[in-house]
Specification:
The chain has 230 residues and is an alpha+beta fold. It has two domains: 74 residues, Helix Hairpins, CATH 1.10.287; 135 residues, Cupredoxins -  blue copper proteins (Immunoglobulin-like), CATH 2.60.40. Helices cover 35% and strands 25% of the residues. Helix 1 runs antiparallel to helix 3. Its main location: mitochondrion. It catalyses: 4 Fe(II)-[cytochrome c] + O2 + 8 H(+)(in) = 4 Fe(III)-[cytochrome c] + 2 H2O + 4 H(+)(out).
């Protein structure tokens, strides 16, 4: 989860988010280099009186400031396209879960199992236990096995929503009448928080997403207990 006064991204807990963080650092370094170079050029232009016509009307300079930006764009575009294709790859998921946005809560359906579906509401502030996070805790968590490819089918019942978990690098629009899909793999056990990222009405800020990643054996135990109750 995010922390107060945090400047950077949340720590990555999925391979995709690690790729996004690496790309962010890569692009940010290019931005810093360009900014430093432009600042140097501006300073030089202000400090020096240019009277040499071979400098102010140089074909070599024209070629450099045309080719160099194109090369920089290629350096940014290639890793960006690679990540875009990685985000679209869904190969043999171990588990498929359908997430449906409502005003203002999420409902989850484990499509591989019968009668395994539940609604997930935010826990009101007055009902929080010590150590729980305000506006982020839900009464029912989406439990998934760790280190397993999970496919999420995302839709909405009423208006536009967006299912987003930053630490996993997942963000997908929930659109009424349309079924979108995305995938993620958690690299370590833990509890990961997200929120609706599409303004969906008065209680838009009060429909959190909570994913609990547990070892496979613990997931099977949780699954058997839930199926017995239903």
């Amino acid at each position: 989860m995010a922390h107060p006064s945090q400047l950077g991204f949340q720590d990555a807990h999925s391979p995709l988010m690690e790729e996004l963080l690496h790309f962010h650092d890569h692009a940010l370094m290019i931005v810093f280099l360009i900014s430093t170079f432009v600042l140097y050029i501006i300073t030089a232009m202000v400090a020096v009186k240019l009277t040499n016509k071979h400098i102010t009307d140089s074909q070599e300079i024209e070629m450099i400031w045309t080719i160099l930006p194109a090369f920089i764009l290629i350096l940014i575009a290639l890793p960006s396209l690679r990540i875009l294709y990685l985000m679209d790859e869904i190969n043999d998921p171990h588990l498929t879960i359908k997430a449906v946005g409502h005003q203002w809560y999420w409902s989850y359906e484990y499509t591989d199992y019968e009668n395994l579906e539940f609604d997930s509401y935010m826990i009101p502030t007055q009902d929080l236990s010590p150590g729980q996070f305000r506006l982020l805790e839900a009464d029912h968590r989406m439990v998934v096995p760790v280190e397993s490819p999970i496919r999420i089918l995302i839709s909405a019942e009423d208006v536009l929503h967006s299912w987003a978990v930053p630490t996993l690098g997942v963000k997908m629009d929930a659109i009424p009448g349309r079924l979108n899909q995305t995938t993620f793999i958690t690299t370590s056990p833990g509890v990961f928080y997200g929120q609706c990222s599409e303004i969906c009405g008065a209680n838009h800020s009060f429909m959190p997403i909570v994913i609990e990643a547990v070892p496979l054996k613990h997931f099977e135990n949780w699954l058997s207990l839930v199926l017995e109750e239903t």
